[in-house]
Amino acid sequence: MISVRQMKAARALLAWSQSDLAAASGISEPTIGRLEAEDGPVGGRAETGAALVAALEKAGVEFISENGGGAGVRMKKRIGKR
Fold first, then answer.
1. Confidence tier at 80 by pLDDT (50, 70, 90)
2. Contacts with 25 (C-beta within 8 Å, 6 or more apart), sequence order
3. Contacts from 67-76 at CB under 8 Å and sequence distance 24+?
């Protein structure tokens, strides 16, 4: 699962509001607000977290796991695009 900081950073990379993420994921904006009000791993039900991650990844975000350098987020490399 991702952290709240990763989720916020992913939204920032996409220039998405909580409303944009709600529309893309099918998760209500109040739920996203509650989840983002905490720190640490994204809480709530596993299905909620999975829907949020799927929406962000579909939009082009790649989540980087903790690998000694720290967890993070970046945009996926687009092959054949400049």
1. low
2. 32, 51, 52, 54, 55, 56
3. 71/2, 71/3, 71/6, 72/6, 72/9, 73/2, 73/6, 73/9, 73/10, 73/13, 74/13, 75/13
Establish how many alpha carbons lie within 13 A of residue 80's alpha carbon, considering only the half-sphere containing its beta carbon.
0
d(CA 11, CA 21): 8
Is the pTM for the entire model greater than 0.85? Answer: yes
* Gap between the Cα atoms of 72 and 17, Å rounded: 19
Q: Give the HSE-up count for residue 14: Cα atoms under 13 Å, Cβ half-sphere.
A: 23
Q: Rounded to the nearest 10 degrees, what angle do helices 29-36 and 18-25 cross at?
A: 120
Measured distance CA(21)–CA(28) in Å, rounded: 9
